[in-house]
Amino acid sequence: MTEEKGKPNPKDHTERGDITEEAVSRTDDPRVTSSDELPDDLLFELMAGLDRLDTVYAEESASPPLDVLARELKAAAEQSRLKKRKERRLFGVISLAVIALSILAAVTSPVLYWSLQGLVPVVALLAAIWRAGRRRRTEWK
């Protein structure tokens, strides 16, 4: 195609029947006779339609005033601060409960507590040795 839209370029076509001599219409409006210019009344209608769209969507696309935006930012910061404070308190309560239960288990039945503490690493070590042995056996096969 040439620089001008809508007009065919003869160099782009190989067959003679592909090239049309008539101008390509850019609109279906019967008031438009030329492909290069729109009549003034149609142009004014289009501009009026665009202005109506601008007024309809102006409120949605407009940014809020700075004082409103500042208030929203302060409110969001306050909510974030309160949420973090609540999470910290919850974490503190849960961690104190875990520590208290651990101390209670150590004080009330130290034999059971220390045997569990010693049994867990021994079981983990035995499981690791067993898996390593199985892996070597499958490699030999």
TrEMBL record:
Pfam families: DUF5345. It comes from the Bacteria. Residues 1-31 have a biased composition (Basic and acidic residues). Residues 1-37 are annotated as: Disordered. The chain crosses the membrane at residues 90-107, 113-133. InterPro entries: DUF5345 (IPR035238). Keywords: Membrane, Transmembrane, Transmembrane helix. This is Uncharacterized protein. The lineage of its organism: Bacteria, Bacillati, Bacillota, Bacilli, Bacillales.
